[in-house]
Amino acid sequence: MPRYWLMKSEPGTYSIADLERDGSTGWEGVRNYQARNFMRDIMQPGDGVLFYHSSAEPPGVAGLARIARAGYPDPTALDPRSPYFDPKATDQEPRWYQVDIAFEQRFPEIIPIATLREAPGLEAMLVINRSRLSVQPVTPEEWEIVLELANQLPFRAPSGTV
DNA sequence: GCCAACGTTGGC
DNA sequence: GCCAACGTTGGC
Hints:
By secondary structure, this protein is α+β, with helices and mostly antiparallel strands. It has helices at residues 16-22, 33-42, 113-118, 126-129, 140-151; strands spanning 4-9, 24-26, 48-53, 60-73, 97-112, 135-138. A 6-stranded mixed β-sheet has the order 2-5-4-3-1-6.
């Protein structure tokens, strides 16, 4: 059973264009326990991902990805030179986990969070109510609504890529 | 730049 | 184990 997620990144750090260029990437650097638990325990290859640009103008959903690899220890937690280094992480107790995500599509325009707020059926979406959670589940109903919004964008998004 | 939300830390 | 202080996130 596929699951759906929303994952946030500041585009200045890593954008949907970066993911398109790279094809796939490790979602390193998450240092929040709730977000970690989703990645470590629940996400599975094939799950759908809304790729969200935070602290952007405008902030919103920039495209789609999918989970390419289930949770595994985040190596940056063990690397003293990494900005994500955590001295409490060890090989035996990795503490932080990541997944790999693969590029699916880039929307022709961002779907702004203001549009999500106004869309019927998205009232309970976590990105609206718990904006600080950087990895969050999305219901199948919410996923469908967001894809419909994407298809209403001026340059129709390519179909059949999911 | 401001500020609300909220997660984490640390004193007790 | 509580809770105040503090730091960070992220929309506006």
